[in-house]
Write a structure and sequence with these properties.
This protein has 8 helices and 16 strands. The strands form 5 sheets. The chain has an 8-stranded mixed β-sheet with strand order 5-8-2-1-11-15-16-14, sandwiched between helices.
């Protein structure tokens, strides 16, 4: 079992990564924090309400109407669903957002994205308190800026900042086997290669914020892996300290 703090970013819908949720409940050590998004669920509810989802550079464009959906879905339906799934599997959990307890420090991002925040840092004090009380924190990717405005924040970015503040291991679960180049999964990716993939566009869509988050954590001294979170096998190996997915390093 991997020693030290662990930060795990899961898919936002409990059923989407059901095997991984069960694994986290049964096998993750006490000092584990779960971070989630919920893009698919947000898109489903946006369309249900007549709002057409838009994205830019792998991030959701969030107008005020969409922000209402984001807060309701991520902070309500998705967060509570994950807490319920973990609790039902025997792991007491507590749901919160990046707006709670000064967890995230954020600022407003590119105005073209609308109500979207950029994470400047994280204060893990609340997470440490909850973990010390035997509870697993489950963090929804919503934050507040210094004016008190709620903002949508990318979940990978939140996980990267929390991991950088806590140290230890960051596991970014996704729906592919890892970072791919020319159809093959890379076992290891250093910071220079990751920056080049971001610059030349070979990392696209949702992989872009994952690589950015991985670099933040790796440069803070964390171990980082981007791996398939759907079946649970890769996550189990990573929690055991074995190779899984793509390891991202600072050098």
């Amino acid at each position: 079992m991997t020693a030290g703090p662990i930060t795990i970013k899961l898919g936002g819908v409990a059923g989407q990564h059901a095997a991984s949720v069960q694994l986290v409940a049964h096998s993750a050590p006490p000092n584990t924090v779960v971070v989630h998004g919920g893009g698919n669920e947000v898109e489903r509810w946006c369309r249900r309400l007549g709002l057409e989802p838009q994205s830019h550079d792998g991030l959701r464009v969030t107008d005020p109407a969409t922000l209402d959906v984001v807060v309701a879905v991520l902070g309500g339906l998705v967060n509570t669903g994950l807490v319920a799934a973990l609790s039902a599997a025997g792991r007491p959990a507590v749901g919160l957002t990046g707006a709670d307890g000064g967890l995230l420090s954020i600022c407003r991002r590119d105005p073209a994205l609308g109500e979207v925040g950029e994470v400047l840092g994280a204060d893990p004090a609340l997470l440490d308190t909850l973990s010390g009380a035997g509870l697993m924190p489950v963090v929804a990717s919503i934050g507040i800026d210094d004016t008190g405005s709620l903002l949508n924040v990318n979940a990978d970015e939140v996980a990267g900042a929390i991991a950088a503040a806590r140290g230890g291991l960051l596991l970014l679960c996704t729906d592919v086997a890892g970072v791919q180049r020319d159809g093959s999964v890379l076992e290891r990716l250093d910071a220079g290669d990751a920056e080049r993939m971001l610059a030349d566009g070979s990392a696209s869509a949702g992989m872009r914020p994952k690589l950015r988050a991985a670099l933040v954590a790796a440069r803070a001294g964390c171990g980082v892996r981007i791996l398939d979170g759907r079946a649970g096998a890769d996550l189990e190996r990573a929690l055991s300290g074995e190779a899984a997915g793509t390891m991202v390093t600072a050098a």
